[in-house]
Amino acid sequence: MIDPVVLRSTLRRAMAMRPRDEWSEAMLKLTIERLLGLAPSALSVPDFQTAMEWNHARNLIEYRYDEDAEANYWHLTDTGKAKEGVK
Amino acid sequence: MSDLSPNSSAFWSPTIGKSRQGKKVRADAVLKNLCPAAQEQIAQWSNQPAERDAEGQPIKGTGGVVFATQQLAEIARQFSLPALRVSSATLYEFLDWWRLEQDLEISFAREEQVMAKTGDKKKAREAGETLLMRLGLAKQDGELIEIAARVSDSRRGLDQKDEIVSLKRQQVGQKGEQLKLEREKFKASIRTKLEAGLDALFEEIKGNTRAETIFAQLREAVAKA
Description:
The complex is a heterodimer. Chain A is α+β, with helices and mostly antiparallel strands. Chain A has a single domain (about 5-85), classed as Orthogonal Bundle (Arc Repressor Mutant, subunit A). Helices cover about 50% and strands about 15% of the residues of chain A. Chain A contains 4 helices and 3 strands; from the N terminus they run H-E-H-H-E-E-H. Chain B folds into 2 domains: about 10-85, no CATH class; about 120-225, no CATH class. Chain B is mainly α. Chain B is built from 8 helices and no strands.
C-alpha cells in the first residue's frame, strides 16, 4: 500500500504539471503511477479515490461531470494551485 | 524563452514563482523551472551515448546522466548558478518528470485532435488515456510491460490487478531464462504495435511543428526502449 500522505500530494503534483487542463480520472491515475514509478494499474482504485476525496474535501481540487464524455473531469482549484505554486 | 542563447545566463536561470522566492528551492525544482529549451538540452545530454574505448567499452563520463551532470556543473561554474550543480539522482528524477510531461503534452494534444476530428468527447478522452498508457508501457522494463499489457488487454477489474501483478511476478521468478526469451519477444511485439500506433499518430499531427518535435523525441525514446 502506498503511503496516503505521499499519494495525496502526488495527486496535486500530477495535476500541477498541467494546471490549466481538466483531467479525466484515468489520465490522472496513470500520471500518478508514472510519478511514483509504479506499473500502470498498480495503484489501487480505493487508494486513488481516498486521495481524491481528501483533496476534494479541502477544496484543493474540484470536478465537473461531463455527460458527453461520461466522465468526471478534475482540476486544481485556486487554493490547490497556490499550494503547488502554479498558476 | 526559446529565443535565448544557450550561452547566456538567462537561458539557464530557473523561473521560480514569486511565492517561492527567498525560500530554499529543491534541486529538482530548479531543473523543472528552467525554460523548455534548456530542459530539452539536458535531456539530449542525458541521451547522448558514451564514447567507447579501443576494446569497445564505454568511457565513463562521456555520455548519459554522468555527462549531463558534468555539463550542468560546468554551466553552474560559468554563470555562477550553483543551483545547477545537481546529483545524478536528482537528474534522474528530473528526467522521469520531463519525459512524463512530454507524454502528457502529446496525450492531451491527441485528445484535442480526436475531439476536433470526431466531435465524440468519450472517444477523445479514451484516445488520450490510451496513448498515455502506451507511452508509459514503452518506458517500463520488460517484466512490467508484460504484466501491465496483459492486465490492460484483458480489461480486468481494477480491483483484481494488484493480485495479478503479484502472481505474474512470482511466475517471472520461476521461469528464469525461458521467460527472459519470451519477454524479449513480447517487447519486440509491443514495440511493433507501438510503432504502428505512432505512425498513425504522426499522420494526425502532421503540420503541427510543436507536436512533430515532441513526436520525434518520442519515436527516439520508443526506439531505445
